[in-house]
TrEMBL record:
It comes from Arthrobacter oryzae. The chain crosses the membrane at residues 62-80, 101-125, 154-172, 179-199, 211-231, 265-283, 295-316, 337-359, 402-419, 431-449, 469-492, 513-535, 555-572, 584-613, 633-654. It is a multi-pass membrane protein. It is found in: Cell membrane. InterPro entries: Caa3_assmbl_CtaG-rel (IPR019108), CopC/D (IPR032694), Cu-R_CopD_dom (IPR008457). This is Putative copper resistance protein D. GO terms for biological process: copper ion transport. Keywords: Cell membrane, Membrane, Transmembrane, Transmembrane helix. PANTHER family: INNER MEMBRANE PROTEIN YEBZ. GO terms for cellular component: plasma membrane. Residues 258-359 form the Copper resistance protein D domain. The keyword Acetylation does not apply.
Amino acid sequence: MRGTGQGPGGVSRPWLLVGLAALFIGLVAALIFSGAAAARGVSDPGALVRWGLPVSKAVHNVAVATVIGGLFFAAGILPRDRNGSRSKVRNAPEHPAFTRALAVAATAGAVWTLSAISVLVLGYADIAGQGISGDPEFTRSLVYFMTDIDTGRAWLAVVIIAAVVTTALFGVRSRGGLALTLILALGGLVPLALIGHSSSSSDHEGAINSLGLHLVGVSAWVGGIIMLALLSGVLGGTGARGTGAGASARTADITEPTLRRFSSLAGFAFALVFASGVINASIRLTTWDDLFGSAYGQLILAKTAAALVLGGIGLMHRRWVIPQLGNRAMGRSARSVLWQLVVAELIVMGATSGIAVALGRSAPPQPTTFAPDASPAFILSGYELPPELTPVRWLTEWRLDWLWIAVALFALVSYVLGVRKVQRRGDSWPWFRTVNWVIGLVVLTYVTSGPPSVYGRVMFSAHMVDHMALTMVTPIFLVLGAPVTLALRALTPRRDSSRGPREWLLIVIHSKFSQLVTHPLFAAANFAGSIVLFYYSDAFGYAMRDHVGHELMNLHFALTGYIFVLTMIGTDPLPRRAPYPMRLLLLLATMGFHAFFGVAIMGGTGLLAADYFGNLGRTWGASALLDQQMGGAVAWGIGEVPTLLVAIGVAIMWSRADDRESKRTDRAADRNNDADLTAYNDMFAKLAERDARLGERNSKLEGR
């Protein structure tokens, strides 16, 4: 697999051009079919904008996927060293695949930045209904679009993120820096999920979350296939070059491990893409006629069929091609089939990406603007007021948060697979931990998608139930599930110089950041102090009004509660653990702080987030201020009970630790015939003898 990588050893560059051609053919065909590129009469911006905007978006999508795919490969799939093994040499030569992955990602980053700028300018021209010009008025309006209009601000954020990621790709070589760059690149997908059709759907938060998950899956999947094709010529091993015959001059053949690792990533990405696509389509298309009778629905059907074809090709990779790569008799034919399937994937993915861009330019059957008579609650929260809260509705009123449902499903499936792997190896795993993990995920889903979340948007008391359950109840069960311990037992360590999930998990555990946030004093201060900082600042109002703020609030309080409970009763590995007396002292302090916070809310006469809770137009239940005071009582009550249970848990662990220490001491005494006790008694005997001699000497002195 050298040179251009043509034939059975790789994918030739002309096939990449075929994939790009398929993208633009699919884009043009879908635009013509849907009529999205047709002239719009008086507000028509011109053919340059009508056709240039979707083309720029297509280039943007391919570029960002390539960047994300390259970072996934460099950070978690490819070995860094040329010989593939773990090298102790600090500046060991890089594997050509690792070097090429970063070079391709950096080039794609530059294209990403330029295409995002193009979309920003053309997008304004499209919305304004005018062609691009050098008129100062056009420039002033463009600046206003970037700074005051949601769509413009979103694309400006994408441009900034793309520029920062591209700069990092040209300079960062460390694996930690690449991981942080990958996280930032994934963050560049967030603005894309917040604009367009998703932001104004009937279930706008469900559409935003499902679209965001869809973009993550597509980027990892498409970007991975592109990187696999571009790296095909340098994945195979080569002998020593030149006069140097040492191990450092050899290039390891990493085809099989690379494909195996990417296959796992692609399988996860396919499940995410297909499930989130179905959910997003079901939100936008509410009837069968919308699906089969509209151009929008028919494009979705075409895209779904293409995704299933790609999933089938990926299954062939996993079930037949990859297992045959190590077979000498079948290896050559397997490699030939492998790259033929990659070519097929490139072509299908290109056409699918074109359809996806055209889909974004097409109008869905459902309206995408607020109704003229929209209620205050709908304008503020994006949803109509739920019915009056009753005991039964604490179980029946749900609004699915697909982001947290995806997190819960991933955590559940991963945990079950981990337990299964450990048990297959012959090791045991306590059923008590599994039950607690499942209960914790059920509670997490209930508080993020169930009645506490639904009514927490319109009632402070329900919001406080949601918050306290998220930060105090859910973490107890999740911590008792010991997920990190299970992961370290189930995940296989990498033998080469790449970093897999196990390696990254260990790095996070032993990092300086982990040492800080899991320090008992910091965890307790963050757990208690962040409540005051959140509710008595503008952050609370932002979290109630804005979808991103709401999800960040959930994430913060879930992690804050989890880390605090972990430092108190967790069995997973930590950089340091507080002694049991300090744990009880910290728990008592947090109980007192929660009581103080709850009493302060109960006695408060000013409405928190008044511009939100005071303008919802709720006609049932207690007034906003009285409901807030009831929320203070909830914070006091719900906050104390779980803390007390954790304190009991600490006391039990302390008692068991003392019992274990006593048993260890007894076993040591049995081994050495109570040598420690004998030495201890001899010490006191010698002290007594010395005191007796001193007494006799003093008596003689007094007698003289």
